Amino acid sequence: MLMEPAVPKYQWGQPVIAAVDLYNDGSHPDVPEDQLMIVAGGPGEIVQVGHHTEANVPIYMVDFGLAVVGCMEHEILPEGSPLPEPEAEAAEGDA
Q1: pTM for this prediction
Q2: SS3 content of the chain, % helix, strand, coil (to 5)
C-alpha cells in the first residue's frame, strides 16, 4: 500500500528559529557527537525541503549561519514564534 508523502508545513526560503536546542547527531564529522550546535531560538532559513521515505515525514535543511542542520518539523518554528515552555518539553520527553 502506497502512502501519499506528508505535506511539508514549512517552505524553502522561509525564515525559522530552532524550537529546541539542536545537538550534533553524528552528521557533522568536524563537531563532536552530542555537542550543542544551535541554541533554541537561533535564527535560520530553510534552504531545502526533503522527505524521509520510511518515516513519511518532511526533513528541512536549515542554514543557521554557523551550520546547515537537518531538522524535523517539531525542531523548528516560524520566525517570530514564541519558544515552547521548558516544562512542556520535559513533559514530552517523559511520555
Answers
A1: 0.83
A2: 15, 35, 55
